Amino acid sequence: MSDTRPLPDHPGYGYGHTPDPGPHYPGPPAQPAAPVRQRRPDGSGTRRAALVIHTVADVAAAFLGLWILLYMLEANQGNVFVRFVGDMADALAWWSQDIFTMDTENLRVLLNYGLPAVIYLAVGHGIALRLRRF
């Protein structure tokens, strides 16, 4: 079985006429030479500041937590990475050194470095939450 109808003379959707080209839209509007930067009313600057504060608090707590972990696992104190983490933890927890004086060394390190980690997290996340609500 074959179709014996004649094909149209020119391409189109039907016999005897060309397809409709559709609506014609103008090109994109011209951009100004120097766009003026306007402030967004949604407070994106405060959101960015909140993100920075949140991240700094997380990084500080991560250094302190990593130092507690390395100390309790008795990592090699001569290693460059372990010394770097220890120095960062000392710099971040300078204000809380020897708050707790115990006979057990691991418990002393856990409390003297864990307290600043918890405070950094609580204060940093609290400030970030407050900024995001503005």
Oligomeric organization of the protein chains: single chain
Secondary-structure class? mainly alpha
Calculate the mean pLDDT score and round it: 83
Radius of gyration: 33 Å
Order of helices and strands: HHH
Overall shape: elongated
Q: Largest sheet at a glance?
A: none
The stretches of 5 or more residues where confidence is low (pLDDT under 50) are none
* Helix content percent band: 40-55%
Cα separation of the termini:
76 Å
SS summary, helix count: 3
The counted number of beta strands is: 0
Strand % is under 5%
Write structural notes for this entry.
- There is one protein chain.
- By secondary structure, the protein is mainly alpha-helical.
- Helix content is 52%, strand content 0%.
- The protein has 3 helices and no strands.
- The chain has helices at 44-72, 80-92, 105-132.
- Helix 1 packs across helix 2 (80-92) and helix 1 (44-72) runs antiparallel to helix 3 (105-132).
- The longest helix has 29 residues, at 44-72.
- The radius of gyration is 33 Å and the shape is elongated.
